[in-house]
Amino acid sequence: MQRRTFNKVLGSGLLVAASPSLIKGLLFANDGTLFASYERALLVDEKGEPVRLGALATEVPYVFHYPHIATPCFLIKLPEPLKQEVALKSSSGETYLWKGGVGKEKNVVAFSAICSHALTHPNPEDSFITYVPKGGQTMAYDKGGVVVCSSHLSAFDPKQGAKSVAGEAKDPLASIVLEYDEANDKVYASGVLGMEMFHQYFRIFRPQLADRFQSARKARQLVKVSTATVTLSAFTKEIIQY
């Protein structure tokens, strides 16, 4: 893995942003907290075929794993185009720029499905975190169209880079950087933007992950080549949403 700064705030307060494809070998980070570049992985369906963005159901959360085989992520096709870049700030004061969605309508987004508050995440048994459609209701927020963690009723707005808009979570969900090959209608995961919680996740859930993946070390293995993508309802037995 090679860690790089994706966006950086200079002393003058100027926010610098760049596309991942434009910064290979540039803008090396001092601590790697804002952007981490990992091996590019093709999103594939349960049959191993490339995920086609046009075939994704709108406002249905899909699950894939990246950058580790045990770190779940959400893939969501939102109902409207997203063309606006969003400046986000971590709870420690670092500012970075989310570039929006991918695809022809710029409405396909991906985020870590590990809640930035208490690390709630989907697993094969249940999921207390999910996406609530625009017309849906949640106790966490006054409207739908948000990712909701029902463990402590935090809400994140995927239209604003999964910015925390309600509840105890202070950090946005980490964004999964997507690269879209429009000519071949293929989408790849290539990095993580924002304050990822992977170290804490592996430490806190070590026993459960070791049991599920045969060992804690195997759970930390990085995804290579491709990653399977399924609906959240197919991935887990029960979705709990308040």
UniProtKB/TrEMBL annotation:
InterPro entries: Rieske_2Fe-2S, Rieske_2Fe-2S_sf
Claim: Metal-binding is one of the keywords in the record: yes
Domain Rieske: residue ranges: 70-187
Domain of life where this protein originates: Bacteria
Entry keyword set: 2Fe-2S, Iron, Iron-sulfur, Metal-binding
Name used for this protein in its record: Rieske 2Fe-2S domain-containing protein
Organism from which the protein derives: Sulfurospirillum tamanense
Lineage start: Bacteria, Pseudomonadati, Campylobacterota, Epsilonproteobacteria, Campylobacterales
